[in-house]
Amino acid sequence: MQCLGRVMGFNFLSVILLLVHVLCGYVDGKREIPVGAIFHQVPDHSYESEIAFRYAIERVNMHEKHFELVPIVRYVSPDDSYKTERKVCELAAEGVTAVFGPSSILTSGIVGSICKTLEIPHIITHWDPEPFGGLDPDLQAMTINLYPEADVLSRALADLIVDYSWKSFTIIYDSDEGLMRLKDILQIHGPSDSPITVRQIDDNPDYRPLLKDIQTSGESHIILEIRPDRILELLRQAKEVKMLEEYQSYIITSLDAHTIDFEELRYSRSNITALRLMDTKSFDIKNAVHDWEQGEARMKRQFRVSPEHVHTESALYNDAVKIYATAIRELDATEEITPSKLSCGSKNLRQWPFGLRIINYMKVKTEHGITGPIIFDDFGRRAHFHLDIIELSKDEGFKKIATWDPTHGVNYTRSQGEVYSQIVESLQNKTFIVASRIGAPFLMFKEKKDGEFLEGNNRFEGYSLELIDGISKILGFQYRMELVPDGKYGSYNKVTKKWDGLVKHLLDRKADLAVCDLTITYERRTAVDFTMPFMTLGISILYAKPVQQPKDLFSFLSPLSLDVWIYTATAYLGVSVLLFVLSRMAPADWENPHPCKQDNDEVENIWDMLNALWLTMGSIMGQGCDILPKAISTRLVAGMWWFFALIMLSSYTANLAAFLTMERMDATIESAEDLAKQSKIKYGVLMGGSTMAFFQTSNFSTYQRMWASMESVRPSVFTKSNDEGRDRVIKGKRMYAFLMESTSLEYITERYCDLTQIGGLLDSKGYGIAMPVNSPYRTAISGAVLKMQEEGKLHQLKTRWWKEMRGGGQCTEVPNSAGENELGIGNVGGVFVVLALGCFCAFIIGILEFLWNVRKVAVEEKITPWDALKAEMKFALNISVTSKPVHNTLSESTASDKSSLRSKSESRRGSELTGRGNNVRTATSLNNLNKIGFVFDKH
């Protein structure tokens, strides 16, 4: 009734003004220019739009000196086409210079058609779809639309969705027109992208079944393309079914969302974003609202509205009157604009001559109003405009966070610091449910003491618990640890198209965070979000340490194989025999034993078999020999042997240290390539883990071959846990290797000293804290992880749980201070054994030579062997004597004879040595010394 009374009041006022205009023609010396408007007779914001229209005209008239706009208003039903046509014709008959409205698509087309025929400017302020078949310039010639052009507005929504990184979303709409407004959004997804779900609501006010279906699907991004009067009720019911949590995000496409009172939903934890065409804090809108309130007060009517709740259509009416008045003013300055009364049904149809010029001027004119810059294209559509992106906040209601325009796209007005502060503030006093799984050292059950009862977070201990505890202290939230029921990390089943483990727990909204050794993978990133990595790692091989064999005393022989030693010995004997044979055949190696006697008929050869063996032995030992061959053939043999000895000696000495320091192992595996090349040692991975996915999806031939081998082996080489893999390696007796992540491998090798890591890392990845997609807390938690890393706390945590707690550090090897390549007696003891055996043999030979000499002395001197032995022993043990006498107690004649004989022998020996030189010392000449007898005293 109140609205009806207001409408009747406006009708009465219109009649009075019309009579005055007709009777007088001018008011205060100004020419009257009537303008018409058509509004709907419904109790909605059309009343506010009419107020905006009338008082915009009033403000124009206050500043104009030569003309005055006279509003003529008519009312129609939104779907009454017949009555709408009659009202337009009535306005034309009254001489209106423009028709504003109506806001219904059904009736606006009729008004536009009549205005086109009569060439009266038609100005609308609502969304108008593009006609099928495209735009017709002739049909659009007299229409100006201040509402944002449909395609550009749809592009703004698409840009916002892309900026928010929504990979999938659900659209809820209530009319076909609404779906048409989102055509650009429906086109931004390609065939390979996640599907877009479209759901329509009817007149049934219960939206809960629809919302529950969306919740079951796991969708968290929702676009609301519904009438503004339905938005609040839908969000109320969404709150009832827990669809207004922190992981749900809503975008409201209506440009009037800011007019809705969201007071009861301000403290919901979901993100609600909307678009707004005007800056509600601008001076223009505050001034316009002041005019509306003061004008209604003069008419004894109460009207209250805040600038933050002004409807878009009302603001557009204000701007439409302003730009139309500007066109009239500037065109009237060159040619007086006069209204004309036109008839719709006249046979002689007349058109208003100024209409087309006014429209063309408005198309090229740029204005700035309450709704920002106003620029039209050739079809009279508003193709350039600015939008405010607003977000519902707890303190201020809708708050501007960004702007959009067709040129620059989304441009945020708030800093990252403000965003971070807002998120941290929302974390205060919040309790997170943190999902995890048992696995050392990340999370383990705490060992109970006698009589101790553990509950809640006190049941656990480990790296994950202390990590989340450190983050909670930085951000100020509480947390509750829970174990995932199936104990799995999270893998996608392509048959059932479902996730399991920690990922499923997050998707089902049963946890806010997931903290453990959960690897960040591409597949998991499609389902959940991750923070920055708190630990980097890679895949490596767990294997049993090689069994070190007992050290061999004769390991110094290792640089050469047994075959080489046999070939070398054979070559040694062969070359010696060849040298002996060739020297017998070569004339140059036969020499005169008495060089002073040139007529000597006898020559001798010093190269008996003993000397040949000695020469080759001296060569291979690198010591050489005092006697050398003289013939070309024998020299060539000796030279080739020396070359061979040099090469063998160099190779032996170069490799000796390496072979002596190298431990002799019972088997060698140094890399994944070694595993792939053999079939004796089996190897496996954790079932359903990221390591298994790595081999499944790898394009590297070695890893593909390894995966094929793992799949084909029976019994299965896959394990249900890392502990099972560790036990299989221990029990496998170096016949099983387990591929696992290096962090877990390092933890195991710190506690099981008979296990070790083989090779390097096969890949590089990281552990991250997982959370539902689009979680608002990801940035804050990542920042806390980065802070702990910079402060060294992450390193301290790893050292604590890897090397200190639960038996860590017991397998640390103490480095050898003297160097890792030192050789022990166990490596080179064989050299000492060989030396001792050689010395022992030399000692035995020396004893035998001594006894043989005693026998010769006894025979030659005709004394008993015992006396000869005692005399020789006595002389040998007297270390103070440095010269040996020739005789002792024999008769002078005998002594003289012996002395003469010795002198002659020595003289002959000296002459031989002088003749031959020092280069030739024959065994025969050496044996001549044995022919010299010794005389001993007889007691």
UniProtKB/TrEMBL annotation:
Tell me where in this chain the Ionotropic glutamate receptor L-glutamate and glycine-binding domain is found: 441-508
Site positions per UniProt: Interaction with the cone snail toxin Con-ikot-ikot:
K787
Q: Which residues cross the membrane?
A: 564-583, 640-662, 831-852
Q: How does it sit in the membrane?
A: Multi-pass membrane protein
Please list where the region (Disordered) is annotated.
Answer: 890-921
Feature type site, description Crucial to convey clamshell closure to channel opening: I669
Record's Pfam families?
ANF_receptor, Lig_chan, Lig_chan-Glu_bd
UniProt keywords (A-Z) are: Cell membrane, Disulfide bond, Glycoprotein, Ion channel, Ion transport, Ligand-gated ion channel, Membrane, Postsynaptic cell membrane, Receptor, Signal, Synapse, Transmembrane, Transmembrane helix, Transport
* Domain of life, source organism: Eukaryota
Annotated Ionotropic glutamate receptor C-terminal domain ranges read: 431-804
Name the residues that bind L-glutamate. Answer: T519, R524, S690, T691, E741
Among the GO biological process terms of this entry, one is: synaptic transmission, glutamatergic
Q: Which GO terms describe its molecular function?
A: glutamate receptor activity; glutamate-gated receptor activity; transmitter-gated monoatomic ion channel activity involved in regulation of postsynaptic membrane potential
Disulfide bridge positions per record: C753-C811
Entry's family note: Belongs to the glutamate-gated ion channel (TC 1.A.10.1) family.
Please identify the protein, giving its name as recorded: Glutamate receptor 1
